[in-house]
Amino acid sequence: MKVQAGTAPKACIVASGLHAKHDLGGHPENKRRINSIWDALRVGELLSQVKVLEAQPLRSDELTLVHDPLYVRWLQELAQTAPQMIGGDTYIAKDTYEAAAWSAGCAVGGLEAIMDGEVRRAFALCRPPGHHAFRDRAMGFCFFNNVAIAARVAQVRFSLAKVAIIDWDVHHGNGTQAIFYDDPSVLFVSLHQHPAYPGTGLAHETGAGAGQGFTLNIPLPSGSTDSDYLANMLEIVLPKLDAFRPELILVSAGQDALAEDPLAGMELTPQVYAVMTRELMRVADCHAEGRMLMCLEGGYHLAQQAQAVRAIIEALAE
Ligand SMILES: [Zn+2]
Q1: Per the confidence metrics, is the pTM higher than 0.85?
Q2: Is residue 197 part of a domain?
Q3: 215-220 vs 186-193, strand pairing mode
Q4: What CATH number does residue 59 fall under?
Q5: pLDDT for 71-123, tens place per residue?
Q6: Spatial distance between the Cα atoms of 233 and 59, rounded to a whole number of angstroms
Q7: Domain span at residue 132?
Q8: CB within 8 A of 299, min separation 6: which ones?
Q9: Is residue 177 part of a domain?
Q10: Which residues are catalytic?
Q11: Cα(300) to centroid of ligand 1, in Å?
């Protein structure tokens, strides 16, 4: 892929060095996840073909578009008595609140770059991840639901009516699903391993009330491959998106369905993530004036995750 001289980059990466303040040696969700991605991105000329933006601080009222103000304050205060564990798997460090707020700031920064017309597509290097975070609860290494906050900011600040979220993290995006379960303005689609953590995301979970039919779960057995994912994308996900006609595509981009990932049992290759990205880019071009924002979620095999993210960003830059 080559960007012609004089052509503005079509994509940006948004990041914040503050993620490193949320870290616990020996825990799979650690700062080396982002550092290894940067190592992979620095090879060759890729970084000259995209914009690289520093995240901006999140507006104080934008966290509470999704999260309960009492929960936000609880997390802020909990960080003062760190380190500690919540729920057995999620650690809180001294600066976790700050890192989590800036992680959401990466997502919103990517959205702003798209909505301001600076780029068509963005990849937000969000860490800590977000898709297991509920309105009022941290869970599964997640504190603030980055992709959900981006969806709400798109609707409230940028007046987009319909937003689609595609979650291909190997774990079901239970927090995101819960936040939008009764909301027909946000289509939530999740492909995930089942049975697996967190245990939700069965096919019969399709939304409630006015949101009935706007949640689509595709549970897949352990051992699923590139061709299984592509078949589901082409036969189920893309037609659903075409029918919904989103004005913005958000992706909860967790690359833990990779074959080497230590926390799951899928068999994907890094390259298939680029193929799925291009399919979604086509939908974004068709319905959303190209607008597509991807937010990093899980992915715990450092080298393979980094390869997959690089492949995704190469596709976004085309
Ligand atoms: Zn995951």
Answers
A1: yes
A2: yes
A3: parallel
A4: 3.40.800.20
A5: 999 999 998 888 999 888 999 999 999 999 999 999 999 999 999 999 999 99
A6: 35
A7: 11-316
A8: 33, 169, 254, 255, 256, 258, 261, 305, 308, 309
A9: yes
A10: 132
A11: 8
- What does the pLDDT read at residue 56? 83
Tokens for 38? 């940067």
Kindly give the distance from the C-alpha atom of residue 317 to the centroid of ligand 1, in angstroms, as a whole number.
Answer: 25
Number of domains the chain is built from = 1
Distance CA 72, CA 135 (A): 9
Contact partners, residue 163, CB within 8 Å, separation at least 6: 151, 154, 155, 185, 186, 187, 246, 247, 248, 249, 250
Asked if residue 6 is part of any domain, the answer here is: no
Residue type, 68: D
Cα angle for residues 311, 312, 315 (degrees, 5° grid): 90
67 contacts 130 by C-beta, under 8 angstroms: no
Strand partners, 142: 139
Within a domain: residue 152?
Answer: yes
CA 285 to ligand 1 centroid distance, Å: 28
Span from the CA of 231 to the centroid of ligand 1 (angstroms): 21
CA 165 / ligand 1 centre spacing (Å): 15
Tokens representing 200? 């939700």
